[in-house]
Amino acid sequence: MVARLLKYGTEEERRIATPMTADLHGNDFPAGWEPITEAEFAKSEFFNGWVAMEHRQMFQENKAVHAYLFHFHGGDGIAIENDFWGGKIRYYRFGCKHEYSEALGDEHAVEIGMRLGHCDHAYKCMKCGHFMVQNSSD
Ligand SMILES: [Zn+2]
Q: 82 CA distance to ligand 1 centroid (A)?
C-alpha cells in the first residue's frame, strides 16, 4: 500500500490504513498511546515506511494534543507533536507493542494469504495476531 494523506483516501481505505483510530472519536487517544524518547523515535519503524498519516486533536485533562499520527502496516504507529511556542518536538507511540513469535512454517503462509519464498520468514505477534514477513536475503 502506498503511503498517502488520509484526506485523499476513500472511507474504506482510511478504515484499513488506520485500524487504531477508525472507530475512535476524533478527540480520543488511540490505545497504547505513550510518549517515547527521540532515541526511540530514531530507531522506530517510522523510517521503514508508513501507510497513512492522520492529524488528530486529542484532549487529556483539558489540554489539547495536536499530533500527526503515522500508521504502520501492523496497526501500530508513531505520532509527532510540535510545540510551536515552546520550540519542542514530542514523540509518541500507539497500538500494540508487537511481540513476534519465532519464524512460522509454510502452513501459516496460507493464513496470511501468501506463498513464502526461500528466504522469507513469517512471524506472528503473540499479543494481537499481526503477521509480518521478513526476507533474510535483504
Ligand atoms: Zn501485536
A: 28
Helix (H) or strand (E) segment spanning residue 12 = helix 11-17
Domain positions in the chain are 4-94, 98-138
Distance of CA 135 from the midpoint of ligand 1 (Å): 19
Strand partners, 104: 122
126 CA → ligand 1 middle, Å: 7
Per-residue pLDDT reduced to its tens digit, 10-23: 777 777 778 888 88
Q: Ligand 1 centroid to 8 CA: how many Å?
A: 28
Contacts of 4 by beta carbon, 8 Å cutoff, 6+ apart: 52
Give pLDDT tens digits for 23-80: 889 899 999 999 999 999 999 999 988 988 999 999 988 889 999 999 998 889 999 9
Give the distance (Å) from ligand 1 centre to CA of residue 63: 29
